[in-house]
Amino acid sequence: MKLQVEKREKVGSSAAKRARSDKKLTAVIYGKDVEATPVLLDAKEFDEVLKQLGKNAIFEVSMSDGKTMQVIVKDIQQAALKNQIQNVALQALTKGQKLTMTVAIHLVGSEDLKEGVLAQTLNELEIETDAAHVPTEFQIAVNEMNIGDTLTVADIKVDAGISVLTDPEAAVAILAAPATETADEDEASAEATEKVAE
């Protein structure tokens, strides 16, 4: 995907407010060989990028002078009281550059589990990779789990171009036995006995 951006001539809160009223987002592009440059993005187009590519979106930007560069979303600042993006930080990428990021873990196949209580204990994986191998998410199948089973980071399949930085022994999903009604009844019975004793 490619987005057209324009250099911001004015910065500051009042200029940012005017930009938002024009359905623009304030952003900064920076990088190893790029001087930090304040720019404006089309808010609707940027929303579409996030929907299609996720929070670690990598895409091209085209400047008004015709220069293009590949960037990755590094930070998104949102308004505290409403779900509105206020500012975006974009890192310009150089060829072969390694990136460190967190990627969401998604459990698949939970609807096939016949018994037990499934708990996801890790929601993101920290990885190092280059721009060509950035995933939108990692999936781990839980449909063959039995009560007492634990899936760890080591069970997640990743592409050859990705190095996982999270501890491979860290638990991702646990299938526990459901709480029994007997235990609840015993507790209620104990409480009733205490009241009688009092």
From TrEMBL:
Taken from the UniProt entry, a GO cellular component term is: cytosolic large ribosomal subunit
Enumerate the spans annotated as Large ribosomal subunit protein bL25 L25 domain: 3-89
User: Which Pfam families does its entry note?
Assistant: Ribosomal_L25p, Ribosomal_TL5_C
Per UniProt, residues of the Large ribosomal subunit protein bL25 beta domain are: 98-178
One Gene Ontology term of the biological-process aspect is:
translation
Q: Which domain of life is it from?
A: Bacteria
Region annotation (Disordered) ranges: 178-198
Is DNA-binding among the key words of this record? no
Can you provide one Gene Ontology molecular function annotated for this UniProt record?
structural constituent of ribosome
Assigned keywords, A-Z: Ribonucleoprotein, Ribosomal protein, RNA-binding, rRNA-binding
- Per the similarity annotation, which family is this? Belongs to the bacterial ribosomal protein bL25 family. CTC subfamily.
Q: How does it assemble?
A: Part of the 50S ribosomal subunit; part of the 5S rRNA/L5/L18/L25 subcomplex. Contacts the 5S rRNA. Binds to the 5S rRNA independently of L5 and L18.
Function according to Swiss-Prot or TrEMBL? This is one of the proteins that binds to the 5S RNA in the ribosome where it forms part of the central protuberance.
Protein name as catalogued:
Large ribosomal subunit protein bL25
Q: Encoded by which gene? A: rplY
